[in-house]
Amino acid sequence: MKLIFEKSVPGRHCSLLPACDVPEATLPASLCRDTAPALPEMSETDISRHYTELCQQVHGVNCGFYPLGSCTMKYNPRIDEEMAALEGFTAVHPLAPAADQQGVQEVLDTAKQYLCEIAGMDDMTFQPAAGAHGEFTGVLLIKQYHESRGDHKRTKIIVPDSAHGTNPATAAMCGYQVVNIASGPDGCVDLDALRAVLGEDTAGLMLTNPNTVGIFDHNILEITRLVHEAGGLCYYDGANLNAVMGVVRPGDMGFDCIHMNLHKTFATPHGGGGPGAGAVGCKAFLAPFLPHSATAEEPGHLQVRSFRGNFLVVVRALTYLLTLGREGIPEAAQNAVLNANYLMARLKGTYTPAYDRVCMHEFVLDLSDLKKATGVTALDVSKSLIDEGIHPPTMYFPLIVHEALMLEPTETEGPETLDHAADVLRMLYQKAYDDAEAMHTAPHHMPIGRPDEVKAARHPVVRWQPEE
User: Fold this and answer.
1) How far apart are the C-alpha atoms of 336 and 246, rounded to whole Å?
2) pLDDT digits (tens, 9 = 90+) for 120-149
3) pLDDT value of position 296
4) Mean pLDDT score, 334-346
5) SS3 of residue 461 by DSSP
6) Is the confidence at residue 299, as pLDDT, over 60?
7) Helix residue ranges, H only, 97-230
8) What is the per-residue pLDDT across 222-270, written as a single tens digit (0 to 9) for each?
């Protein structure tokens, strides 16, 4: 489809703004542009059709099954959006006096109370803008803790080989040396490998549990104990919290701080570039190092983002928590685990699970044997799913599984959807033997086929340039 700039017609416009009801002010010439901005000129009908066409070319949870592993692309109740759209929340200025922000403060205080209870933490900040930013903030808490005690020899952060890519990147950005440890045959942390790298230079461990292959590490208490005995702290990546929320608390597993993806686990739309919220919780001894929002009355606090973070994401999360309540939150986690195990069971015997055991919220298939037999890759299967109205699962991750497909069905899918997905995946498995060439060139019925991903990565075109 054409870009909105390419659809622009000189002189075409629409009137959307109401008449000005306040005195007009003239800006100084030094603040005015020399030339008008290059904005598209369109009628309201043209604009409506353009964005409708864009919507029709995007696959979302509202369109069909979206089993993107480790991302929790679940349905978000509309009531969350309605609460976030209330004028009392959208119209308040972040620098308004505290007396005029009491409703905002109550939302933040209540959300903190509930989320700290779920995480097993004592305090929390909502400033981080998203998950990776939350990681960065959490690891900085660890860094500040060690430095406050004059313990400057701790220069290393331990990260498992199955970790999300943001974990080693975060540790490196915080100035730490990243120490990678291998997983055992069961997909969990190899305790001997962990013991071998622990020492006086250990600042901490970054871990998610359940881990990236969807397995709850049964050695988690031993893992955190070993790190603590070495003088390090334990950081919990909350990417997979959807599997255990309300069932088991990271704080009780021995973790000292955590980030939670409110935009994944607590029902704010995930993807499309935002908005996100990577709330960071911690134990009491780390609380003095938390960043706090600056207000009109109390400027100058340590901050990692302006004001109170993405506040409306917190409104959505609190609405989700209040809607489900103490009984509904663990039920959602349990249903997510049930759905993942059900779908994996439906696929076993056709596909090979990377770890053939009870999983949590997600599981990984290993398509190595299918590739050897037919030449059809995990990428080919994923692209073929698009033609069947199913969003591809995560591909080639984690790196410890070759030809990996990671599926996370989430708690919001019914058995009919899971049965259909299993039937489609089994059909594609057989198609790999019957018509591999068709799968190599899929998808065939979408607006876009297979873009040149290497060219897109190396030579991205990220903005429109007008012709000279």
Assistant:
1) 13
2) 999 999 999 999 999 999 999 999 999 999
3) 46
4) 98
5) coil
6) no
7) 102-119, 131-148, 166-173, 191-197, 220-229
8) 999 999 999 999 999 999 999 999 999 999 999 999 999 999 999 887 7
User: What residues form DSSP beta bridges with 183?
Assistant: 189
CA distances in angstroms from 178 to 1, 132, 275, listed in the order given: 44, 16, 29
Residue in 155, 180, 185, 154 with CA at minimum distance from that of residue 167: 180
d(CA 160, CA 228): 17
For the record, the structure tokens of 438 come out as: 């068709």
DSSP state at residue 4: T
**Cα distances (Å, whole numbers) of residue 76 to 61, 278, 324, 411:** 9, 17, 12, 11
Q: CA distances (Å), 190 to each of 30, 157, 218, 219, 391, in order? A: 64, 16, 12, 9, 33
**100 — alpha (psi -120 to 50), left (phi > 0) or beta?**
alpha
Q: In what order do the strands lie in the sheet with 177-181?
A: 123-125, 278-282, 257-261, 233-237, 202-207, 156-160, 177-181
Domains of the chain are 1-28+38-57 (no CATH), 79-322 (3.40.640.10), 335-455 (3.90.1150.10)
Following DSSP, what letter does each residue of 220-279 receive, concatenated? HHHHHHHHHHTT-EEEEEGGGGGGTTTTS-HHHHT-SEEEEEHHHHTSS---TT----EE
Of 266, 263, 267, nearest to 276 by C-alpha is 263
| Residue 224, token pair as written in the block | 């955190």
Beta bridge partners of 260: 279
Residue 385: other Cβ atoms inside 10 A: 22
Token pair 């353009």: residue: 50
Mean pLDDT of 340-358: 97
> What's the gap between Cα 203 and its chain centre?
25
Tell me which residue has tokens 């950005």: 173
Give pLDDT tens digits for 59-83: 888 899 999 998 899 998 999 999 9
Buried-state track 29-62, b at ≥16 Cβ within 10 A, e below 16? eeeeeeeeeeebebeeebeeebeeeeeeeeeebe
Contact 139, 204 (CB under 8 A): yes
CA distance 210 to 220: 10
**Residue count (the chain):** 468
424's CB contacts (< 8 A; 6+ apart) are 385, 388, 390
Q: Would you say residue 298 has pLDDT above 60?
A: no
Render pLDDT for 404-461 as a digit per residue (tens, 0 to 9). Answer: 999 999 999 999 999 999 999 999 999 999 999 999 999 999 988 998 889 999 999 8
Contacts of 358 (CB under 8 A, 6+ apart): 341
pLDDT in tens, 360-411: 999 999 999 999 999 999 999 999 999 999 999 999 999 889 999 999 999 9
